[in-house]
Amino acid sequence: MDQQTLAHAQELDFSLLALFVRASFTVKIVMIALTLASFWSWSIIVRKFITFRAARSEAAAFDQAFWSGEPLDELFDQIGPNPAGASQRIFAAGMLEWRRSHRQDGELIAGAQARIDRSMDIAIAKEGEALNSGLSFLATVGSTAPFVGLFGTVWGIKVAFEEIAISQNTSLAVVAPGISEALVATAIGLVAAIPAVIFYNKLSGDADKITAGYEAFADEFSTILSRQLDA
């Protein structure tokens, strides 16, 4: 290695910003896309943690009110037909159908139990969909980001070898900067993918547990109404 090449290599800046600036246009696009995907993933993760915490608190508070011994009709009158909480909405769906199933003379319309259960199932499905919204993006980032980063690396290495062929200099000092720039794309891809995979599994499991709690409440509520129907 001649002294001029060595001096040039020592002067190169290998910070992440410098590697990004020196990268080819295609590699820059890959880096920017992966960085944006990572930031968006973290925004979903933080938002979901806040949402799930609020859902657990709301479910615990409503469960306490539901089992307090207060008549269900009075509890429904308090929260109204369009409450804010998920557990309350499931309860309201069942109570609305319960009231609609009564004729003006007080008798029940046939098939009330099935309609009440169906109404609560629909409400639970909507709440489950809301809990899982955004998680598919985490799954997509987790599965595709490493390959997108790898594409950026392969493209960057291709450009680096083209520059080597043009300069007719194969010394490591000439090869290293281009390869370093290319490898950053894979690194960013892994930085985006690893948290997305970890938190997708965590949040997906939490969403299933919360939804299972809604289903358990609906079953208990349905049992209570069934006793009144049979009385």
User: What share of residues is helical?
Assistant: over 70%
| Count of separate DSSP helical elements | 8
Gross geometry: rod-shaped
Quote the beta fraction: under 5%
Instruction: Write down the secondary-structure element order.
Output: HHHHHHHH
Query: How many strands appear in the DSSP assignment?
Result: 0
Spans where pLDDT lies below 50 across 5 or more residues: 1-10
Classification by helices and strands: mainly alpha
Layout of secondary structure:
Layout lengths: L2 H9 L4 H7 L2 H42 L5 H8 L6 H15 L11 H21 L2 H33 L4 H59 L1
Helix pairs in contact: 2-8, 3-7, 3-8, 4-5, 5-6, 5-8, 6-8, 7-8
What does this structure look like?
The protein has helices spanning 3-11, 16-22, 25-66, 72-79, 86-100, 112-132, 135-167, 172-230. It is mostly helical and 231 residues long. Helix 5 packs antiparallel against helix 6 (112-132). The termini are far apart. 27% of the residues are buried. Mean pLDDT is 85; it is low at 1-10.
Structure in a nutshell:
By secondary structure, the protein is mainly α.
Keyword list:
mainly alpha; 0% strand; disordered N terminus; 231 residues
